[in-house]
């Protein structure tokens, strides 16, 4: 069917033919992990480039355009520079936690991508609690941010980390509940099944009437807050806290934080695509009959659309204040979300779905 | 009783944070010593002196023509207005009257300077509140004004266009056309500013009711300019003590009574409209005349004290010259708006959040070299 499948199947058969089953399985895991790592390092870098290009477009600028044609190697060059930089640190830091923090952040994002449903064949792990796993793993990142702020012996970093704790813990509720609203509709936590449900009934945002649209809006707001991006970038609010929690990090450790932010954005966008816009399914089934057409393309296009939306937020809105941030969550989003969940349950009970 | 017990068990400590001298929201080298309890500000202690260049002392050494050029470096965003203030003070001392042409050109360029300054402020307030895009929109429009300045007097920021007795050169032949072009352009772009930032819910929430300064406090602290007028204190020198050509144009004084950051924001937006209307009234009929009333090569002011106040972009600028009849002043004192406005900061940000302090500071529009001199 799909070209990637043939290649992976060939490699799979070849591995199992030359070594014992146990060794072959482990080798295959390592190969898949390495491939994913490479893929996401590059994807993260190009999201940075995309962000800069989109920002430039919003801000009447040209954006990076010197390194390579249209500046496509700009972020590569930046990454190379960051790798070559010295890892400096403050005096009197908690060395162990300080060094551990970036790995928490980057690992939580990288583990989460293991369950991404790029297409029917292109998914490393299709576990039956996929969406729950995705949500749970990606929320570990906040520990890294808290540790980074705490251990770097800097008051501004500390304030940033505390804000991050407040923000992530609060908004996780909304992300979880809006996801739950949609899971109610599909009746499954498995990502591939959630997508296949939409093949017959249409995308979930249409299937679920008004509650689905409300859930989508809440998910986008809370998801943006989860990734610590503007208008919820209080964690690194540069006009207030310098650089927030990663003030004292340099070189590759800083790059981890930076990359993690973009991969997290990718994660939030993919959850949105899976839950609301039919994942890898083509709109109106226009490519369903073309068997060789890689469905991954649809997934990536939709994800990029959502990411563009999030970038649009970032370059348009001012930043919220910390108490307004909490008011928005606890006084508005959470009650609306709970009511929305009940509404969705009623709709399903009365069988009003399309 | 229980509360006391909780307080004893959960003892929170206040701590100090140095906001500046190198901090993105300080717009220069202002050092604020913050006493913070969590996110709540208990005390703001501004520490000055990081960009003190002893301009006032240097003035005592210099001739009156040279003083003018030093004032560029105070509030560099309203450099032309600073120059004008010194020139007016010296002209007052010499008791000479400049021609109408000079008066009108000075007024037009002053208002262009004010527009450029407010445009930059608008970009910066957005940036301070986290909306980075405003900065670039503002700079797009500010570029028009800077180009006009560059064409006329060769400099874009520190212009030195004024000299005691008139102007350094006549306006460039293109000046009138380009100013008109700019007005046409900016009249379509200023509503865009409103659409992008003023109407934004988050922006309104961040500024409404934040950093409230009452009219009484504004007067007693000597807050002038948009800060005073945002609190309902009618302190526009252009209205109360008209100088140059301000007595022959009609404009409204931007006055808002709320006293919060949003009111100060609105004052500046309204001032931009008014500045454009002032230029509109003057640009078509710049009278003919000399651009310079001749003065002696070495200006010697008569013995005495001379004071001139003007409305700079950030408030009232006062120039005090004490002369003993020599070619140098005995003492020069600048009453800068930023210094008085800064003194209000602690009073109105106590009990607010760190983010409120940033928003308030952005709405005050500090230029640190103006505060320190």
How would you describe the overall organization of this protein?
The complex is a heterodimer of chains A (354) and B (373). Chain A has helices spanning 3-18, 21-58, 74-84, 95-112, 130-138, 141-151, 155-186, 191-201, 204-207, 209-226, 238-241, 251-276, 296-316, 322-349. Chain A is mainly alpha-helical. Chain A has one domain. In chain A, helix 2 (21-58) crosses helix 13. Chain B has 373 residues and is an alpha+beta fold. Chain B is built from 15 helices and eight strands. Chain B is globular and about 80 Å long. Chain A binds chain B through residues 55, 58-61, 155-156, 159, 162-163, 230-231, 233-234, 237-242, 315-324, and chain B through 15, 17, 23-25, 38-39, 126-133, 135-137, 140, 196-197, 200, 202-203, 205-206, 353-356, 358.
H/E series of chain A = HHHHHHHHHHHHHH
Number of domains of chain B: 1
Number of helices of chain A: 14
User: What would CATH call the architecture of chain B?
Assistant: Orthogonal Bundle
Q: Structurally, how many domains make up the residues of chain A? A: 1
Low-confidence runs of chain A: none
Q: Which percent range fits the helix content of chain B?
A: 40-55%
Which regions of chain B are unreliable across 5 or more consecutive residues at pLDDT < 50? Answer: none
Most extensive interface: pair and counts?
A: A-B, 30 and 31 residues
Q: Structural class, from secondary structure content of chain B?
A: alpha+beta
Secondary-structure content class of chain A: mainly alpha
Please state roughly what percent of the residues of chain A sit in beta strands, choosing from under 5%, 5-15%, 15-25%, 25-35%, 35-45% or over 45%.
under 5%
Spatial gap, N to C terminus of chain B = 53 Å
Superfamily (CATH H level) name of chain B: Cytochrome-c3 Hydrogenase, chain B
Succession of helices and strands of chain B: HEEEHHHHHEEHHHHHHEEEHHH
Subunit arrangement of the protein:
heterodimer
The portion of residues forming beta strands of chain B comes to 5-15%
| Helix count from the secondary structure assignment of chain B | 15
For the termini of chain A, the CA-CA separation is: 31 Å
């Amino acid at each position: 069917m799909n070209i990637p499948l043939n290649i992976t199947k060939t490699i799979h058969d070849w591995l199992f033919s030359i070594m014992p089953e146990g060794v072959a399985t482990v080798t295959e895991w390592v190969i898949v992990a390495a491939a994913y790592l490479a893929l996401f390092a590059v994807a993260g870098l190009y999201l940075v480039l995309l962000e800069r290009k989109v920002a430039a477009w919003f801000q009447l600028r040209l954006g990076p355009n010197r390194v390579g044609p249209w500046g496509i190697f700009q972020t590569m060059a930046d990454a190379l520079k960051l790798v070559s930089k010295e890892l400096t640190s403050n005096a009197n830091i908690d060395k162990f936690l300080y060094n551990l923090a970036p790995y928490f952040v980057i690992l939580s994002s990288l583990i989460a991508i293991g369950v991404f449903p790029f297409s029917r064949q292109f998914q490393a792990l299709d576990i039956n609690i996929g969406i729950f796993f995705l949500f749970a793993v990606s929320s570990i990142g906040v520990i890294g941010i808290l540790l980074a702020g705490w251990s770097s012996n800097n008051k501004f970093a500390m304030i940033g980390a505390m804000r991050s704790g407040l923000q992530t813990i609060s908004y996780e509720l909304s992300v979880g509940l809006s996801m739950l609203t949609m899971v109610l509709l599909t009746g499954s936590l498995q990502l591939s099944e959630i997508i296949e449900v939409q093949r017959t009934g249409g995308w979930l945002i249409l299937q679920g009437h008004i509650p689905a649209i409300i859930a989508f809006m809440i998910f986008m707001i809370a998801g943006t807050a989860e990734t610590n991006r503007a208008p919820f970038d209080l964690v690194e609010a540069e006009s207030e806290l310098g650089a927030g929690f990663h003030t004292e990090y340099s070189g590759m450790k800083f790059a981890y934080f930076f990359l993690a932010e973009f991969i997290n954005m990718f994660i939030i966008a993919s959850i949105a695509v899976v839950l609301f816009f039919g994942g890898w399914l083509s709109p109106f089934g226009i490519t369903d009959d073309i068997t060789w057409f890689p469905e991954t393309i649809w997934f990536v296009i939709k994800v990029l659309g959502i990411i563009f939306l999030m970038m649009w937020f970032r370059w348009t809105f001012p930043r919220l204040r910390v108490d307004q941030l909490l008011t928005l969550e606890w006084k508005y989003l959470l009650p609306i979300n709970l009511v929305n969940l009940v509404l969705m349950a009623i709709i399903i009970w009365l069988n009003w779905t399309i | 009783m229980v509360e006391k017990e909780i307080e004893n068990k959960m003892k929170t400590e206040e701590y100090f944070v140095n906001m500046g001298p190198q901090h993105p929201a300080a717009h220069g080298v202002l050092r604020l010593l913050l006493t913070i309890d969590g996110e709540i500000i208990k005390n703001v202690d501004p520490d000055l002196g990081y960009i003190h260049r002893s301009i006032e002392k240097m003035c005592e050494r210099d001739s009156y023509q040279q003083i003018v050029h030093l004032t560029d470096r105070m509030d560099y965003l309203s450099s032309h207005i600073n120059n004008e203030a010194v020139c007016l003070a010296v002209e007052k001392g010499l008791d000479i009257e400049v021609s109408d042409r000079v008066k009108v050109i000075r007024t037009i360029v002053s208002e262009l300077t004010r527009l450029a300054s407010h445009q930059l402020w608008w970009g910066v307030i957005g940036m301070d509140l986290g909306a980075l895009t405003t900065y670039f929109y503002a700079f797009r429009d500010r570029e028009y004004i800077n180009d006009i300045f560059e064409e006329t007097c060769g400099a874009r920021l520190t212009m030195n266009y004024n000299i005691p007795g008139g102007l350094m050169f006549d306006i460039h032949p293109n000046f009138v056309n380009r100013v008109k072009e700019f007005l046409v352009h900016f009249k379509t772009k200023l509503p865009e500013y409103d659409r992008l930032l003023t109407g934004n819910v988050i922006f309104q929430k961040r500024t409404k009711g934040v950093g409230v300064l009452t009219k009484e406090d504004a007067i007693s602290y000597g807050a002038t300019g948009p800060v005073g007028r945002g609190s309902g204190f009618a302190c526009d020198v252009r209205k109360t003590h008209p100088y140059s050509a301000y007595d022959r144009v009609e404009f409204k004084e931007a006055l808002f009574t709320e006293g919060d950051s949003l009111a100060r924001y609105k004052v500046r937006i309204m001032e931009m409209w008014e500045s454009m209307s002032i230029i509109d009234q003057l640009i078509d009929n710049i009278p003919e005349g000399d651009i310079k009333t001749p003065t002696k090569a070495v200006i010697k002011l008569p013995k005495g004290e001379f004071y001139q106040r003007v409305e700079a972009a950030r408030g009232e600028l006062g120039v005090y010259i004490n002369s003993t009849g020599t070619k140098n002043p005995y003492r020069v004192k600048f009453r800068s708006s930023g210094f008085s406005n800064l003194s209000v900061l602690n009073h109105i940000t106590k009990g607010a959040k760190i983010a409120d302090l940033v928003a308030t500071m952005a709405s005050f529009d500090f230029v640190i070299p103006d505060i320190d001199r």
